Amino acid sequence: MPQYTVTAFNWSAAGYNAQYNTSYTATLDDDDGAYQGGADGNESISINGGAFGGSVGEPYAIDISFTDTGGTPHVETFYFFNTGGSWYFVPGPGSEFTVGATLGSYQSHTTGWNYSEITCFVRGTLIETERGRVAVDSLTAGDRVLIADGSYRPLRMVMSRALTADALRANPKLRPVRITAGALGHGLPMRDLLVSRQHRMLVSSKISERMFADADVLVAAVRLTELPGIDIEQTCEPVEYFHLLFDRHEVIFAEGAPTESLFTGAEALKALTPEAYEEVTLLFPELLAPQAACRTACHIPSGRQQRRLVARHLKNNKPILASGAVAVP
């Protein structure tokens, strides 16, 4: 069965309003993409390489305040599981909760959570290909897609996952981000573009060049929601997400705007459904090599760095532009 390896913290040992100075490596073994606790006899958990034991109790996604190691306050969702002896929690993707952070107080919670955060396009998104702009749901393996250097690369695999309205209501983090037409400058994207929260867009600015010595950086869509014209969808209309897999991580064009293909580093592979993970790794075992996690199409700042980049643009009233547009000084 697929295994999911994550960094976890022992809530039972410290609780709320406490500093966490120790992290643990938790490996969860399951035959589906949802953590269900005691309701699923096929789940088992190992902490720091110990023996696998069954999960118990209810699974919770709990919103909790915390202060990161730099003294900045946050409220984020943490994913709780029970090993039978202790409660552990896992921070979400890109979280600033690290060793040395101080957990605050409970805010609210929901029951149930998934192992994965989806990173992909929605049905109907137009992708630039050798035969023109083609809807992502019409692409097939072998189609040649335009990449950032102006050449075309063949698609190796197209995968999809449909989510119901109930699933979106139950887990708001699965709702897409809408980047309205023109929000990234110079008319890009050409139409409203809907992507998952963790899907990254290639943006460019003098500020990013000063911060990272690289004008062009990939930034998660959810980080861009502080900017005008970019928001998380509040409706719960059913949505279907699509993964586009190439031989390597690529920058491609969706609704004219530069964005990433599926990144197959170790953490990104965990974001696939168990069925997709099994298929991808059986067909492309080289993706499991340690160096695969380093082959990014261009620089990807950390979650904190992405937030700082957006904050500096807002403070200086400078727009972030889709890469390839004229950078604003």
- Shape type: globular
**Structural class assignment:** mainly beta
Global mean pLDDT: 82
Q: What kind of sheet is the major sheet? A: 9 strands, antiparallel
Q: Termini distance?
A: 51 Å
Description:
It is a single chain. The protein is mainly beta. Helix content is 13%, strand content 37%. The chain contains six helices and 26 strands. It has helices at residues 11-14, 165-170, 206-212, 266-269, 274-283, 303-315; strands spanning 3-10, 18-19, 24-29, 34-35, 44-47, 53-54, 56-67, 73-82, 87-91, 102-111, 113-114, 121-122, 126-129, 132-135, 144-146, 152-154, 157-163, 177-179, 193-195, 200-204, 216-220, 230-232, 239-245, 251-254, 257-260, 321-322. The strands form eight sheets. The protein has a nine-stranded antiparallel beta sheet with strand order 2-10-7-8-9-1-3-5-6. Strands 12-23-17 form a three-stranded antiparallel beta sheet. Strand 13 and strand 14 form a beta hairpin. It is globular and about 55 Å long.
Short characterization:
The chain is mainly beta. The protein has helices spanning 11-14, 165-170, 206-212, 266-269, 274-283, 303-315; strands at 3-10, 18-19, 24-29, 34-35, 44-47, 53-54, 56-67, 73-82, 87-91, 102-111, 113-114, 121-122, 126-129, 132-135, 144-146, 152-154, 157-163, 177-179, 193-195, 200-204, 216-220, 230-232, 239-245, 251-254, 257-260, 321-322.
